[in-house]
Amino acid sequence: MKLRNTQARRSFATEVNNARLILVFFEDRVLLKVIEAETPDHFDEVRRLCWEYRDFLLTLDAKSVRVVKTFYPRDVYARLMDEIEVEHAPPGGGVRLVLKDGHAVGCGMFRTIGPGIAEIKRVFVNDAARGTGAGYAVMMSLIEQCREQGFDCIRMDTGKPLESATRLYLSMGFQLRDAYSEIPEIAKDTLLFFEMPLPGAQAENSQIE
Predict the structure, then answer these.
(1) Mean pLDDT across the chain
(2) Of the candidates 103, 105, 85, which has an alpha carbon nearest to the alpha carbon of residue 95?
(3) In 3-state terms, what secondary structure has residue 62?
(4) pLDDT value at position 29?
(5) For the N-acetyltransferase domain, which residue ranges apply (predicted)?
């Protein structure tokens, strides 16, 4: 099934073979692949991209930088990276890797945070993939996998300065909501929280505008 990606700057089509393989076409050429991270090499690439993501967050406004350094200092973040395979292991979670010309350029993951509730984390595409529809494709893969695994809803957060990410999530059906976990005072003005209901788990893929 090919889905039109209205978020990309140009005309892309996204083919959903299943939640574990998504292809992004441009002018009948496979531009991107979104795959399930399964091998040690895959997870090494995911960790590399997650470190790139942290470095990117450190380029934002001063308040966001302070939050990252307070809650994700390098030693704490390194431990999180070491635990990715366990924290996001199927069937309660999953990790996705975006490939462009065979090179890893983006990632995303989800985990279970409550009965029937999934949380999407660390959706990131680097400069090599921006403007290609990679963010849309990895989000589509994560959403469809959560649907297939029978979750009732998905929650996630993002930083307020990440306006393009906010537009993408809202366009895909997420709605803004209050914080769904306890947030330290220092971070309260820096984050936005989202939720998407998933009616009809196991339903056929449909277009998400």
Answers:
(1) 85
(2) 85
(3) helix
(4) 66
(5) 44-197
Q: Are 157 and 194 in contact (CB under 8 A)?
A: yes
The closest alpha carbon to 38, from 92, 85, 83, belongs to 85
Architecture of the 2-197 domain: 3-Layer(aba) Sandwich (3.40)
C-alpha 39/C-alpha 195 separation (Å) is: 30
pLDDT tens for residues 137-194? 999 999 999 999 999 999 999 999 999 999 999 999 999 999 999 888 888 889 999 9
How many angstroms separate the CA atoms of 78 and 55, rounded?
A: 13
Give the domain ranges of the chain: 2-197
Question: Could you tell me which of 163, 136, 165 has the C-alpha nearest to residue 8?
Answer: 136
Largest distance between two CA atoms of the chain = 49
Q: What is the rounded CA–CA span in Å between residue 162 and residue 186?
A: 18
- Contact residues for 115 (Cβ-Cβ < 8 A; gap 6+): none
pTM: 0.84
Query: Is the distance from CB of 151 to CB of 198 less than 8 angstroms?
Result: yes
